[in-house]
Amino acid sequence: MCGIVGYIGTSKAVPVIFDLLKRLEYRGYDSAGIATIGSSIQTFKTEGSVDDLVSITPDLAGCIGIGHTRWATHGVPSSENAHPHCDNAGNVAVVHNGIIENYIELKDELIGSGHEFVSETDTEVLPHLISEYYNGGLESSVRNALSKVQGSYALAVISTDDPDKIVVARKDSPLVLGLGDSEFFVASDASGILKYTKNVIFMNNGEIGVISREGVEITTMDGARVENKVETLEWTAEAAEKSGYDHFMQKEIFEQPISIRETFSGRISSEGVNLEVPVPNARRIVIIACGTSYHAGLFGRYAIEHFARIPVEVEIASEFRYTDPILDCGDLVIAITQSGETADTLAAIREAGSKDSHKLGITNVLGSSITRECQCILTRAGPEIGVAATKSFTSQLAVLLLSAVRLGRLRGALSAADENDFIYELKQMSANIRRVLNCAPSIRECALLFADAEQFLFMGRGANYPIALEGALKLKEISYIPAEGFPAGELKHGPLALIYDGVPVIAIATEGMVYDKMLGNIKEVKARGAIVIGIASESDTRIAKYVDYVLRIPDTDPWIAPVLASVVLQLFAYYIAYHKRCEIDKPRNLAKSVTVE
Ligand code: M6R
Protein backbone atom coordinates (compact mmCIF):
# COMPACT_ATOMS: atom_id res chain seq x y z
CA MET A 1 0.00 0.00 0.00
CA CYS A 2 1.80 3.11 -1.22
CA GLY A 3 5.40 3.15 -2.25
CA ILE A 4 7.86 5.68 -0.93
CA VAL A 5 11.26 6.39 -2.43
CA GLY A 6 14.17 8.75 -1.95
CA TYR A 7 17.51 9.57 -3.51
CA ILE A 8 20.55 11.53 -2.45
CA GLY A 9 23.76 11.54 -4.48
CA THR A 10 25.58 13.35 -7.20
CA SER A 11 23.16 12.70 -10.08
CA LYS A 12 19.94 14.57 -10.74
CA ALA A 13 17.33 13.16 -8.37
CA VAL A 14 14.23 13.43 -10.59
CA PRO A 15 15.00 10.68 -13.17
CA VAL A 16 16.11 8.27 -10.43
CA ILE A 17 13.00 8.97 -8.39
CA PHE A 18 10.73 8.42 -11.40
CA ASP A 19 12.47 5.14 -12.11
CA LEU A 20 12.16 4.02 -8.48
CA LEU A 21 8.51 5.04 -8.40
CA LYS A 22 7.73 3.08 -11.57
CA ARG A 23 9.26 0.01 -10.01
CA LEU A 24 7.12 0.44 -6.90
CA GLU A 25 3.94 1.41 -8.71
CA TYR A 26 2.42 -2.00 -8.03
CA ARG A 27 2.15 -0.92 -4.37
CA GLY A 28 -0.37 1.80 -5.27
CA TYR A 29 -1.22 3.66 -8.42
CA ASP A 30 -3.96 6.23 -7.92
CA SER A 31 -1.75 9.31 -7.58
CA ALA A 32 1.91 10.18 -7.38
CA GLY A 33 4.23 12.98 -6.38
CA ILE A 34 7.83 14.12 -6.12
CA ALA A 35 9.80 16.76 -4.20
CA THR A 36 13.37 17.90 -4.65
CA ILE A 37 15.44 20.66 -3.13
CA GLY A 38 16.75 23.39 -5.38
CA SER A 39 16.77 26.91 -3.97
CA SER A 40 13.57 25.82 -2.23
CA ILE A 41 11.50 22.64 -2.04
CA GLN A 42 9.86 22.00 -5.41
CA THR A 43 6.88 19.67 -5.33
CA PHE A 44 4.88 18.17 -8.21
CA LYS A 45 1.87 15.95 -7.64
CA THR A 46 -0.95 14.53 -9.67
CA GLU A 47 -3.85 12.15 -9.63
CA GLY A 48 -3.05 9.17 -11.84
CA SER A 49 0.06 7.18 -12.62
CA VAL A 50 3.76 7.87 -12.39
CA ASP A 51 3.71 8.49 -16.15
CA ASP A 52 1.18 11.26 -15.53
CA LEU A 53 3.55 12.70 -12.94
CA VAL A 54 6.47 12.54 -15.36
CA SER A 55 4.44 14.51 -17.90
CA ILE A 56 3.87 17.45 -15.53
CA THR A 57 7.32 17.60 -13.89
CA PRO A 58 9.95 19.90 -15.42
CA ASP A 59 13.64 19.12 -15.54
CA LEU A 60 14.91 19.91 -12.03
CA ALA A 61 18.53 20.17 -11.02
CA GLY A 62 18.37 18.95 -7.39
CA CYS A 63 20.41 15.89 -6.40
CA ILE A 64 18.20 15.04 -3.45
CA GLY A 65 14.52 14.15 -3.50
CA ILE A 66 11.66 11.98 -2.35
CA GLY A 67 8.69 10.46 -4.17
CA HIS A 68 5.45 8.62 -3.56
CA THR A 69 2.98 6.44 -5.39
CA ARG A 70 -0.32 6.23 -3.56
CA TRP A 71 -3.05 3.74 -2.73
CA ALA A 72 -5.68 5.94 -1.13
CA THR A 73 -6.78 5.29 2.44
CA HIS A 74 -7.60 8.74 3.87
CA GLY A 75 -9.01 10.99 1.16
CA VAL A 76 -9.85 10.37 -2.49
CA PRO A 77 -7.16 10.10 -5.16
CA SER A 78 -6.40 13.72 -6.10
CA SER A 79 -3.37 15.94 -6.48
CA GLU A 80 -4.17 17.63 -3.12
CA ASN A 81 -4.14 14.28 -1.34
CA ALA A 82 -1.08 12.98 -3.21
CA HIS A 83 2.23 13.03 -1.35
CA PRO A 84 4.68 14.68 -0.68
CA HIS A 85 2.94 16.85 1.88
CA CYS A 86 4.54 20.08 3.07
CA ASP A 87 4.32 22.45 6.04
CA ASN A 88 2.86 25.92 5.48
CA ALA A 89 6.23 27.55 4.94
CA GLY A 90 7.14 24.92 2.34
CA ASN A 91 10.35 24.07 4.22
CA VAL A 92 9.58 20.44 4.99
CA ALA A 93 8.30 17.71 2.62
CA VAL A 94 7.23 14.23 3.71
CA VAL A 95 6.29 11.00 1.94
CA HIS A 96 4.61 8.36 4.08
CA ASN A 97 3.36 4.79 3.87
CA GLY A 98 1.15 3.73 6.78
CA ILE A 99 -1.62 5.26 8.83
CA ILE A 100 -1.40 7.97 11.49
CA GLU A 101 -4.19 6.81 13.76
CA ASN A 102 -4.42 9.91 15.98
CA TYR A 103 -4.26 12.39 13.09
CA ILE A 104 -7.62 13.98 13.84
CA GLU A 105 -6.57 15.05 17.34
CA LEU A 106 -3.16 16.16 16.07
CA LYS A 107 -4.72 18.10 13.22
CA ASP A 108 -7.10 19.90 15.61
CA GLU A 109 -4.19 20.88 17.86
CA LEU A 110 -2.10 22.07 14.92
CA ILE A 111 -4.99 24.08 13.48
CA GLY A 112 -5.35 25.63 16.94
CA SER A 113 -1.69 26.72 16.68
CA GLY A 114 -2.30 28.36 13.31
CA HIS A 115 -1.40 25.57 10.84
CA GLU A 116 -3.47 25.41 7.67
CA PHE A 117 -4.22 22.10 6.00
CA VAL A 118 -4.92 21.52 2.33
CA SER A 119 -5.59 17.77 2.11
CA GLU A 120 -7.85 15.17 3.67
CA THR A 121 -4.94 12.86 4.47
CA ASP A 122 -3.62 11.64 7.79
CA THR A 123 -0.07 12.18 6.49
CA GLU A 124 -0.32 15.95 6.25
CA VAL A 125 -0.01 16.25 10.04
CA LEU A 126 3.60 15.03 9.77
CA PRO A 127 5.24 18.03 8.03
CA HIS A 128 3.21 20.35 10.26
CA LEU A 129 4.33 18.51 13.39
CA ILE A 130 7.95 18.58 12.22
CA SER A 131 7.81 22.32 11.65
CA GLU A 132 5.90 22.88 14.91
CA TYR A 133 8.57 21.01 16.87
CA TYR A 134 11.50 22.18 14.77
CA ASN A 135 14.50 22.66 17.04
CA GLY A 136 17.34 23.45 14.68
CA GLY A 137 18.01 19.96 13.29
CA LEU A 138 15.85 17.87 10.98
CA GLU A 139 16.55 14.54 12.66
CA SER A 140 15.68 15.71 16.17
CA SER A 141 12.61 17.54 14.86
CA VAL A 142 11.38 14.36 13.15
CA ARG A 143 12.06 12.48 16.39
CA ASN A 144 10.03 15.04 18.36
CA ALA A 145 7.19 14.90 15.87
CA LEU A 146 7.07 11.11 15.87
CA SER A 147 6.86 11.04 19.65
CA LYS A 148 3.36 12.54 19.25
CA VAL A 149 2.24 10.08 16.61
CA GLN A 150 0.31 6.83 16.99
CA GLY A 151 0.06 4.43 14.07
CA SER A 152 2.30 2.95 11.44
CA TYR A 153 4.78 4.65 9.18
CA ALA A 154 7.63 4.38 6.79
CA LEU A 155 8.54 7.94 5.94
CA ALA A 156 11.15 10.05 4.24
CA VAL A 157 11.59 13.73 4.99
CA ILE A 158 13.58 16.50 3.33
CA SER A 159 13.94 20.09 4.48
CA THR A 160 15.46 23.30 3.17
CA ASP A 161 16.84 23.86 6.67
CA ASP A 162 18.99 20.73 6.37
CA PRO A 163 19.23 20.42 2.57
CA ASP A 164 21.81 17.65 2.34
CA LYS A 165 19.96 15.00 4.30
CA ILE A 166 17.02 12.67 4.00
CA VAL A 167 15.62 11.60 7.35
CA VAL A 168 13.76 8.29 7.31
CA ALA A 169 11.86 6.43 10.00
CA ARG A 170 10.05 3.15 10.27
CA LYS A 171 7.29 1.67 12.42
CA ASP A 172 5.26 -1.27 11.10
CA SER A 173 5.68 -0.33 7.42
CA PRO A 174 8.61 -1.57 5.35
CA LEU A 175 11.63 0.56 4.52
CA VAL A 176 14.87 -0.37 2.77
CA LEU A 177 17.95 1.77 2.28
CA GLY A 178 20.22 1.10 -0.71
CA LEU A 179 23.91 1.88 -0.42
CA GLY A 180 25.62 2.95 -3.66
CA ASP A 181 28.83 4.77 -4.43
CA SER A 182 28.36 8.23 -2.89
CA GLU A 183 24.67 7.83 -3.56
CA PHE A 184 21.92 6.36 -1.43
CA PHE A 185 18.41 5.16 -2.12
CA VAL A 186 15.26 4.79 -0.06
CA ALA A 187 12.42 2.46 -1.06
CA SER A 188 9.47 0.61 0.38
CA ASP A 189 10.94 -2.62 -0.88
CA ALA A 190 14.15 -3.97 -2.24
CA SER A 191 12.89 -4.78 -5.75
CA GLY A 192 12.75 -1.02 -6.35
CA ILE A 193 16.44 -0.45 -5.81
CA LEU A 194 17.88 -3.67 -7.25
CA LYS A 195 18.91 -1.88 -10.45
CA TYR A 196 21.12 0.52 -8.48
CA THR A 197 22.64 -1.57 -5.73
CA LYS A 198 22.44 -4.93 -4.04
CA ASN A 199 23.77 -3.63 -0.72
CA VAL A 200 20.86 -2.76 1.49
CA ILE A 201 19.87 -2.06 5.05
CA PHE A 202 16.42 -3.26 6.07
CA MET A 203 15.30 -0.79 8.71
CA ASN A 204 13.74 -2.13 11.90
CA ASN A 205 10.72 -0.84 13.74
CA GLY A 206 11.46 2.16 15.90
CA GLU A 207 14.52 3.27 13.97
CA ILE A 208 15.35 6.67 12.52
CA GLY A 209 17.95 7.03 9.78
CA VAL A 210 19.86 10.05 8.56
CA ILE A 211 21.13 9.70 5.01
CA SER A 212 23.71 12.11 3.64
CA ARG A 213 26.15 11.77 0.74
CA GLU A 214 28.68 10.53 3.29
CA GLY A 215 26.62 7.61 4.49
CA VAL A 216 23.81 6.38 6.68
CA GLU A 217 23.44 6.69 10.43
CA ILE A 218 20.70 4.83 12.20
CA THR A 219 19.50 5.34 15.75
CA THR A 220 16.61 4.13 17.85
CA MET A 221 13.77 6.48 18.76
CA ASP A 222 15.63 7.08 22.06
CA GLY A 223 18.73 8.14 20.18
CA ALA A 224 20.87 5.04 20.78
CA ARG A 225 23.20 4.28 17.84
CA VAL A 226 22.35 1.14 15.83
CA GLU A 227 25.05 -0.86 14.05
CA ASN A 228 24.27 -0.77 10.28
CA LYS A 229 23.55 -4.33 9.19
CA VAL A 230 24.26 -4.32 5.47
CA GLU A 231 22.77 -7.26 3.60
CA THR A 232 23.37 -8.34 0.01
CA LEU A 233 20.35 -9.00 -2.16
CA GLU A 234 20.39 -12.27 -4.05
CA TRP A 235 17.76 -11.26 -6.61
CA THR A 236 19.04 -10.04 -9.96
CA ALA A 237 18.00 -6.69 -11.40
CA GLU A 238 16.63 -8.50 -14.49
CA ALA A 239 14.27 -10.48 -12.26
CA ALA A 240 12.40 -7.25 -11.57
CA GLU A 241 12.11 -6.29 -15.27
CA LYS A 242 9.42 -7.35 -17.76
CA SER A 243 12.09 -8.69 -20.12
CA GLY A 244 9.99 -8.59 -23.28
CA TYR A 245 6.78 -9.99 -21.78
CA ASP A 246 3.59 -7.95 -22.08
CA HIS A 247 2.97 -8.10 -18.35
CA PHE A 248 4.82 -8.98 -15.19
CA MET A 249 2.08 -11.50 -14.44
CA GLN A 250 2.74 -13.29 -17.72
CA LYS A 251 6.47 -13.30 -17.08
CA GLU A 252 5.95 -14.58 -13.56
CA ILE A 253 3.67 -17.40 -14.74
CA PHE A 254 6.29 -18.46 -17.28
CA GLU A 255 9.08 -18.26 -14.70
CA GLN A 256 7.58 -21.04 -12.61
CA PRO A 257 9.82 -23.86 -13.83
CA ILE A 258 12.74 -21.77 -12.54
CA SER A 259 11.09 -20.52 -9.36
CA ILE A 260 10.08 -24.06 -8.39
CA ARG A 261 13.61 -25.30 -9.05
CA GLU A 262 14.90 -22.54 -6.76
CA THR A 263 12.37 -23.41 -4.09
CA PHE A 264 13.60 -27.02 -4.08
CA SER A 265 17.29 -26.23 -4.50
CA GLY A 266 19.29 -27.89 -1.71
CA ARG A 267 16.09 -28.99 -0.03
CA ILE A 268 15.49 -32.36 -1.74
CA SER A 269 17.97 -35.14 -2.36
CA SER A 270 18.31 -38.91 -2.15
CA GLU A 271 18.72 -38.40 1.62
CA GLY A 272 15.20 -36.97 1.86
CA VAL A 273 13.76 -33.52 2.46
CA ASN A 274 16.19 -31.12 4.06
CA LEU A 275 14.14 -28.30 5.58
CA GLU A 276 14.23 -26.86 9.06
CA VAL A 277 10.67 -27.15 10.35
CA PRO A 278 10.39 -26.29 14.04
CA VAL A 279 8.50 -28.23 16.72
CA PRO A 280 7.76 -31.51 14.95
CA ASN A 281 6.02 -32.62 18.14
CA ALA A 282 3.50 -29.74 18.03
CA ARG A 283 0.04 -30.88 19.10
CA ARG A 284 -1.61 -28.74 16.50
CA ILE A 285 -0.69 -26.41 13.64
CA VAL A 286 -2.60 -23.21 12.98
CA ILE A 287 -1.96 -21.57 9.60
CA ILE A 288 -2.79 -17.87 9.21
CA ALA A 289 -2.73 -15.90 5.96
CA CYS A 290 -4.73 -13.68 3.60
CA GLY A 291 -5.82 -13.96 -0.03
CA THR A 292 -3.79 -16.27 -2.20
CA SER A 293 -1.55 -17.16 0.74
CA TYR A 294 -4.67 -18.28 2.60
CA HIS A 295 -5.47 -20.62 -0.28
CA ALA A 296 -1.93 -21.99 -0.03
CA GLY A 297 -2.61 -22.48 3.69
CA LEU A 298 -5.76 -24.50 2.94
CA PHE A 299 -3.71 -26.71 0.62
CA GLY A 300 -1.06 -26.97 3.36
CA ARG A 301 -3.66 -28.22 5.77
CA TYR A 302 -4.58 -31.14 3.51
CA ALA A 303 -0.92 -31.95 2.85
CA ILE A 304 0.28 -31.75 6.46
CA GLU A 305 -2.64 -33.78 7.79
CA HIS A 306 -2.04 -36.40 5.08
CA PHE A 307 1.74 -36.73 5.33
CA ALA A 308 2.39 -35.85 8.98
CA ARG A 309 -0.93 -36.65 10.70
CA ILE A 310 -0.92 -33.41 12.71
CA PRO A 311 -4.25 -31.62 13.08
CA VAL A 312 -4.17 -28.32 11.20
CA GLU A 313 -6.49 -25.33 11.29
CA VAL A 314 -6.38 -22.53 8.74
CA GLU A 315 -7.51 -19.02 9.62
CA ILE A 316 -7.88 -15.79 7.71
CA ALA A 317 -5.44 -13.48 9.47
CA SER A 318 -7.81 -10.50 9.71
CA GLU A 319 -10.37 -12.68 11.51
CA PHE A 320 -7.93 -14.61 13.64
CA ARG A 321 -6.38 -11.56 15.29
CA TYR A 322 -9.70 -10.33 16.66
CA THR A 323 -11.22 -13.59 17.84
CA ASP A 324 -9.13 -14.00 20.99
CA PRO A 325 -7.77 -17.26 19.56
CA ILE A 326 -7.28 -20.24 21.83
CA LEU A 327 -3.58 -21.03 21.51
CA ASP A 328 -0.88 -22.37 23.76
CA CYS A 329 2.71 -23.55 23.82
CA GLY A 330 1.71 -26.85 22.18
CA ASP A 331 0.71 -25.05 18.99
CA LEU A 332 2.84 -24.15 16.00
CA VAL A 333 1.44 -21.10 14.22
CA ILE A 334 2.53 -20.75 10.60
CA ALA A 335 2.08 -17.36 8.92
CA ILE A 336 2.17 -17.49 5.12
CA THR A 337 2.79 -14.18 3.38
CA GLN A 338 4.45 -13.61 0.02
CA SER A 339 5.38 -10.02 0.80
CA GLY A 340 6.09 -10.58 4.47
CA GLU A 341 4.36 -7.24 5.04
CA THR A 342 0.62 -7.98 5.24
CA ALA A 343 -0.52 -6.04 8.30
CA ASP A 344 -3.17 -8.55 9.41
CA THR A 345 -0.83 -11.52 9.05
CA LEU A 346 1.89 -9.75 11.03
CA ALA A 347 -0.58 -8.83 13.76
CA ALA A 348 -1.81 -12.42 13.89
CA ILE A 349 1.69 -13.85 14.31
CA ARG A 350 2.33 -11.36 17.10
CA GLU A 351 -0.89 -12.52 18.74
CA ALA A 352 0.43 -16.10 18.52
CA GLY A 353 3.67 -15.00 20.16
CA SER A 354 1.78 -13.34 22.99
CA LYS A 355 0.12 -16.71 23.71
CA ASP A 356 3.48 -18.53 23.83
CA SER A 357 2.83 -20.54 20.69
CA HIS A 358 5.71 -21.49 18.43
CA LYS A 359 5.92 -19.40 15.28
CA LEU A 360 7.07 -20.00 11.73
CA GLY A 361 6.81 -17.72 8.70
CA ILE A 362 6.72 -18.71 5.04
CA THR A 363 7.62 -15.72 2.92
CA ASN A 364 9.15 -14.76 -0.41
CA VAL A 365 10.91 -11.60 0.71
CA LEU A 366 14.20 -11.67 2.55
CA GLY A 367 14.37 -8.89 5.14
CA SER A 368 10.60 -8.35 5.16
CA SER A 369 8.81 -7.66 8.43
CA ILE A 370 7.79 -11.29 8.99
CA THR A 371 11.47 -12.28 8.94
CA ARG A 372 11.90 -10.01 11.95
CA GLU A 373 9.01 -11.59 13.83
CA CYS A 374 9.92 -15.28 13.64
CA GLN A 375 11.98 -18.01 12.02
CA CYS A 376 11.04 -18.11 8.33
CA ILE A 377 11.27 -20.45 5.38
CA LEU A 378 11.95 -18.48 2.19
CA THR A 379 9.94 -19.57 -0.85
CA ARG A 380 12.66 -18.22 -3.20
CA ALA A 381 10.25 -17.45 -6.06
CA GLY A 382 12.17 -14.25 -6.94
CA PRO A 383 10.60 -10.80 -7.08
CA GLU A 384 6.91 -10.85 -7.89
CA ILE A 385 5.73 -7.53 -9.27
CA GLY A 386 2.30 -8.37 -10.74
CA VAL A 387 -0.36 -7.71 -8.12
CA ALA A 388 -1.89 -11.13 -8.82
CA ALA A 389 0.20 -13.73 -7.02
CA THR A 390 1.33 -16.57 -9.32
CA LYS A 391 4.82 -17.96 -8.93
CA SER A 392 4.84 -17.09 -5.24
CA PHE A 393 1.70 -19.24 -4.84
CA THR A 394 3.17 -22.35 -6.45
CA SER A 395 6.36 -21.89 -4.43
CA GLN A 396 4.25 -21.65 -1.26
CA LEU A 397 2.55 -24.92 -2.25
CA ALA A 398 5.97 -26.47 -2.84
CA VAL A 399 7.29 -25.34 0.56
CA LEU A 400 4.16 -26.67 2.25
CA LEU A 401 4.62 -30.05 0.56
CA LEU A 402 8.24 -30.13 1.73
CA SER A 403 7.20 -29.16 5.27
CA ALA A 404 4.50 -31.83 5.31
CA VAL A 405 6.94 -34.52 4.19
CA ARG A 406 9.62 -33.39 6.64
CA LEU A 407 7.18 -33.35 9.54
CA GLY A 408 5.86 -36.74 8.44
CA ARG A 409 9.34 -38.22 8.61
CA LEU A 410 10.20 -36.57 11.92
CA ARG A 411 6.99 -37.84 13.48
CA GLY A 412 7.28 -41.33 11.99
CA ALA A 413 4.07 -40.92 10.00
CA LEU A 414 5.83 -41.32 6.64
CA SER A 415 8.25 -44.10 5.69
CA ALA A 416 11.62 -43.39 4.07
CA ALA A 417 10.48 -45.37 1.01
CA ASP A 418 7.33 -43.26 0.61
CA GLU A 419 9.37 -40.10 1.11
CA ASN A 420 11.75 -41.20 -1.65
CA ASP A 421 8.94 -41.99 -4.05
CA PHE A 422 7.44 -38.58 -3.42
CA ILE A 423 10.78 -36.82 -3.84
CA TYR A 424 11.11 -38.49 -7.22
CA GLU A 425 7.83 -36.82 -8.23
CA LEU A 426 8.83 -33.48 -6.70
CA LYS A 427 11.94 -33.50 -8.83
CA GLN A 428 9.73 -33.68 -11.95
CA MET A 429 7.60 -30.72 -10.87
CA SER A 430 9.62 -28.04 -12.62
CA ALA A 431 9.69 -29.98 -15.93
CA ASN A 432 5.98 -30.74 -15.62
CA ILE A 433 5.18 -27.06 -15.13
CA ARG A 434 7.15 -26.38 -18.29
CA ARG A 435 4.98 -28.91 -20.12
CA VAL A 436 1.86 -27.14 -18.86
CA LEU A 437 3.29 -23.83 -20.11
CA ASN A 438 3.93 -25.41 -23.50
CA CYS A 439 0.17 -25.91 -23.70
CA ALA A 440 -0.44 -22.16 -23.25
CA PRO A 441 -1.82 -21.74 -26.81
CA SER A 442 -4.57 -24.34 -26.26
CA ILE A 443 -5.36 -22.93 -22.80
CA ARG A 444 -5.66 -19.50 -24.44
CA GLU A 445 -7.92 -20.85 -27.16
CA CYS A 446 -10.22 -22.41 -24.59
CA ALA A 447 -10.18 -19.33 -22.33
CA LEU A 448 -11.15 -17.01 -25.18
CA LEU A 449 -14.29 -19.04 -25.86
CA PHE A 450 -15.50 -17.82 -22.47
CA ALA A 451 -14.06 -14.31 -22.37
CA ASP A 452 -17.54 -12.78 -22.46
CA ALA A 453 -19.03 -15.02 -19.78
CA GLU A 454 -20.91 -13.17 -17.05
CA GLN A 455 -19.70 -15.41 -14.29
CA PHE A 456 -17.60 -18.51 -13.65
CA LEU A 457 -17.75 -21.27 -11.12
CA PHE A 458 -14.72 -23.29 -10.07
CA MET A 459 -14.95 -26.56 -8.19
CA GLY A 460 -12.60 -29.13 -6.78
CA ARG A 461 -12.39 -31.66 -3.97
CA GLY A 462 -9.71 -32.38 -1.38
CA ALA A 463 -6.49 -30.48 -2.12
CA ASN A 464 -8.06 -29.27 -5.37
CA TYR A 465 -10.65 -27.27 -3.44
CA PRO A 466 -8.15 -24.51 -2.48
CA ILE A 467 -6.97 -24.53 -6.08
CA ALA A 468 -10.57 -23.86 -7.18
CA LEU A 469 -10.72 -20.92 -4.76
CA GLU A 470 -7.44 -19.61 -6.10
CA GLY A 471 -8.55 -20.04 -9.73
CA ALA A 472 -11.66 -17.98 -8.99
CA LEU A 473 -9.66 -15.30 -7.16
CA LYS A 474 -7.19 -15.01 -10.03
CA LEU A 475 -9.97 -14.59 -12.57
CA LYS A 476 -11.99 -12.01 -10.64
CA GLU A 477 -8.90 -10.10 -9.54
CA ILE A 478 -7.57 -9.41 -13.03
CA SER A 479 -10.61 -9.72 -15.33
CA TYR A 480 -13.33 -8.43 -12.93
CA ILE A 481 -15.61 -11.33 -13.92
CA PRO A 482 -17.54 -12.58 -10.88
CA ALA A 483 -16.18 -16.02 -10.04
CA GLU A 484 -16.76 -18.34 -7.14
CA GLY A 485 -14.82 -21.39 -6.05
CA PHE A 486 -16.35 -24.10 -3.94
CA PRO A 487 -15.83 -27.67 -2.80
CA ALA A 488 -17.70 -29.80 -5.31
CA GLY A 489 -19.35 -31.81 -2.53
CA GLU A 490 -21.14 -28.66 -1.41
CA LEU A 491 -22.95 -28.24 -4.73
CA LYS A 492 -26.29 -29.50 -3.54
CA HIS A 493 -26.11 -27.32 -0.45
CA GLY A 494 -26.50 -24.11 -2.39
CA PRO A 495 -24.11 -23.41 -5.28
CA LEU A 496 -26.17 -25.57 -7.65
CA ALA A 497 -28.70 -22.73 -7.68
CA LEU A 498 -26.12 -20.67 -9.59
CA ILE A 499 -26.07 -23.10 -12.49
CA TYR A 500 -28.03 -22.10 -15.59
CA ASP A 501 -27.83 -22.83 -19.28
CA GLY A 502 -24.38 -22.03 -20.59
CA VAL A 503 -22.66 -20.98 -17.36
CA PRO A 504 -19.00 -22.04 -17.47
CA VAL A 505 -17.85 -24.34 -14.67
CA ILE A 506 -14.20 -25.21 -14.28
CA ALA A 507 -13.84 -28.62 -12.65
CA ILE A 508 -10.44 -29.59 -11.32
CA ALA A 509 -10.62 -33.34 -11.69
CA THR A 510 -7.14 -34.67 -11.13
CA GLU A 511 -6.90 -38.24 -10.06
CA GLY A 512 -6.57 -39.19 -6.41
CA MET A 513 -8.60 -36.25 -5.08
CA VAL A 514 -11.93 -38.11 -4.74
CA TYR A 515 -11.97 -38.45 -8.50
CA ASP A 516 -15.10 -40.56 -8.94
CA LYS A 517 -17.16 -38.28 -6.73
CA MET A 518 -15.90 -35.37 -8.79
CA LEU A 519 -17.22 -37.02 -11.95
CA GLY A 520 -20.59 -37.27 -10.21
CA ASN A 521 -20.51 -33.56 -9.41
CA ILE A 522 -19.66 -32.76 -13.01
CA LYS A 523 -22.73 -34.73 -14.10
CA GLU A 524 -24.87 -32.71 -11.71
CA VAL A 525 -23.84 -29.36 -13.19
CA LYS A 526 -23.95 -30.66 -16.77
CA ALA A 527 -27.50 -31.90 -16.23
CA ARG A 528 -28.48 -28.32 -15.40
CA GLY A 529 -26.94 -26.76 -18.51
CA ALA A 530 -23.41 -25.83 -17.39
CA ILE A 531 -20.57 -25.92 -19.88
CA VAL A 532 -17.79 -27.77 -18.09
CA ILE A 533 -14.08 -27.28 -18.61
CA GLY A 534 -12.27 -30.13 -16.91
CA ILE A 535 -8.66 -30.04 -15.79
CA ALA A 536 -7.41 -33.60 -15.85
CA SER A 537 -4.33 -35.76 -16.21
CA GLU A 538 -2.94 -36.70 -19.62
CA SER A 539 -3.68 -40.39 -19.19
CA ASP A 540 -7.25 -39.86 -17.91
CA THR A 541 -9.40 -41.62 -20.51
CA ARG A 542 -12.72 -41.12 -18.73
CA ILE A 543 -12.97 -37.36 -18.28
CA ALA A 544 -13.68 -36.50 -21.94
CA LYS A 545 -17.06 -38.23 -21.74
CA TYR A 546 -18.13 -36.02 -18.88
CA VAL A 547 -16.99 -32.53 -19.83
CA ASP A 548 -17.18 -30.17 -22.81
CA TYR A 549 -13.50 -29.22 -22.89
CA VAL A 550 -10.45 -30.79 -21.24
CA LEU A 551 -7.25 -29.00 -20.30
CA ARG A 552 -4.57 -31.60 -19.61
CA ILE A 553 -1.74 -31.66 -17.11
CA PRO A 554 1.09 -34.22 -17.08
CA ASP A 555 0.56 -37.39 -15.04
CA THR A 556 2.04 -36.97 -11.59
CA ASP A 557 1.46 -37.66 -7.92
CA PRO A 558 -2.04 -36.60 -6.73
CA TRP A 559 -0.40 -34.10 -4.33
CA ILE A 560 1.53 -32.43 -7.13
CA ALA A 561 -1.32 -32.31 -9.65
CA PRO A 562 -2.97 -29.36 -7.81
CA VAL A 563 0.21 -27.32 -8.34
CA LEU A 564 0.10 -28.01 -12.08
CA ALA A 565 -3.62 -27.26 -12.20
CA SER A 566 -2.95 -23.85 -10.61
CA VAL A 567 -0.66 -22.96 -13.50
CA VAL A 568 -3.44 -23.82 -15.97
CA LEU A 569 -5.84 -21.57 -14.07
CA GLN A 570 -3.34 -18.70 -13.93
CA LEU A 571 -2.97 -18.83 -17.71
CA PHE A 572 -6.73 -19.14 -18.17
CA ALA A 573 -7.34 -15.98 -16.11
CA TYR A 574 -4.46 -14.15 -17.76
CA TYR A 575 -5.70 -14.73 -21.32
CA ILE A 576 -9.24 -13.64 -20.49
CA ALA A 577 -8.01 -10.47 -18.79
CA TYR A 578 -5.66 -9.79 -21.71
CA HIS A 579 -8.54 -10.19 -24.16
CA LYS A 580 -10.63 -7.78 -22.11
CA ARG A 581 -7.74 -5.28 -22.11
CA CYS A 582 -7.67 -5.13 -18.33
CA GLU A 583 -4.83 -3.54 -16.37
CA ILE A 584 -3.43 -6.97 -15.55
CA ASP A 585 -0.46 -6.00 -13.41
CA LYS A 586 -2.36 -3.30 -11.55
CA PRO A 587 -5.97 -4.41 -11.07
CA ARG A 588 -8.35 -1.68 -10.01
CA ASN A 589 -8.47 -0.91 -6.28
CA LEU A 590 -5.77 -3.44 -5.38
CA ALA A 591 -2.16 -3.18 -4.29
CA LYS A 592 0.52 -5.79 -3.96
CA SER A 593 1.32 -5.38 -0.28
CA VAL A 594 -1.57 -4.72 2.05
CA THR A 595 0.34 -2.97 4.80
CA VAL A 596 -2.74 -1.42 6.40
CA GLU A 597 -5.68 -3.18 8.05
O1 M6R B 1 1.85 -10.77 0.69
P1 M6R B 1 0.75 -11.68 1.14
O2 M6R B 1 0.92 -13.08 0.65
O3 M6R B 1 0.55 -11.65 2.63
O4 M6R B 1 -0.55 -11.10 0.48
C1 M6R B 1 -1.81 -11.63 0.78
C2 M6R B 1 -2.85 -11.16 -0.22
O5 M6R B 1 -2.98 -9.77 -0.17
C3 M6R B 1 -2.48 -11.56 -1.65
O6 M6R B 1 -2.29 -12.92 -1.74
C4 M6R B 1 -3.60 -11.14 -2.63
O7 M6R B 1 -4.74 -11.89 -2.37
C5 M6R B 1 -3.10 -11.33 -4.05
N1 M6R B 1 -3.28 -10.11 -4.77
C6 M6R B 1 -3.82 -12.38 -4.80
O8 M6R B 1 -3.36 -12.51 -6.10
List keywords for this structure.
alpha/beta, Rossmann fold, 8-stranded antiparallel β-sheet, binds 5-amino-5-deoxy-1-O-phosphono-D-mannitol, about 35% helix, Glutamine Phosphoribosylpyrophosphate, subunit 1, domain 1, 18 helices, about 600 residues
Gist of the model:
The protein is built from 18 helices and 27 strands. By secondary structure, the chain is α/β, with parallel strands linked by helices.
Task: Show the helix and strand layout.
Blueprint: E1 3-8, H1 13-23, E2 31-37, E3 41-47, H2 50-56, E4 64-70, E5 85-86, E6 92-100, H3 103-112, H4 125-132, H5 138-146, E7 151-159, E8 166-171, E9 176-179, E10 184-187, H6 190-193, E11 199-202, E12 207-212, E13 215-220, E14 225-226, E15 231-232, H7 248-254, H8 256-264, E16 268-269, E17 272-273, E18 284-289, H9 291-308, E19 312-316, H10 317-320, E20 331-337, H11 343-354, E21 358-363, H12 369-373, E22 376-378, H13 391-410, H14 416-438, H15 440-449, E23 456-460, H16 464-479, E24 483-487, E25 504-508, H17 515-527, E26 531-537, E27 549-553, H18 561-579
Parallel strand pairs: 18-19, 18-20, 20-21, 21-22, 23-24, 23-25, 25-26, 26-27
Antiparallel strand pairs: 1-4, 1-10, 2-3, 2-4, 5-6, 6-7, 7-8, 8-12, 9-10, 9-11, 11-15, 12-13, 13-14, 16-17
Bound molecules: 5-amino-5-deoxy-1-O-phosphono-D-mannitol.
